[in-house]
Write a structure and sequence with these properties.
Length: 154
Amino acid sequence: MAMVSALVLHAFILLLFTPQQGVSGQQAFRTEPRNLTVRAGATALLKCEVLRASGAVQWVKDGLLLGPQRSLPGYPRYSMTGDENRGQYHLQIMDVRLEDDSPYECQVGRSKTSQPIVSRTVWLNVQSKQNHRSQWEMWGYTQEAAWDNFSNDR
């Protein structure tokens, strides 16, 4: 029994003092993207910040890898923005269109010291310009009538 206890203690000490390769350098998300709703024509920004990024960072749109470059080939309205030295890999989409309404993920590939990581899947919801109505219009006013009503109250 004493020998078993000594072996367990020895194994515990070895585990305690043996350096764990890759554990301290494992890449992780500081900020994961969130669902976002924007009007068509606006600029969308999906945020992704990575601690200790050692693998290639890229965005995925509807299951399609967009690539690890800051300017994304084949997607002139898309770019990765932010300070790479601070782990910022935000996806910026200029002049958002209805076809941009999709699920997105931020992914970081495997490296020598880290396993790959994948953010939660988020949705970019795009509202068409025609479907946007002001609060005044929902109450039955035109924009002109709403302004007249507001001006006369003052």
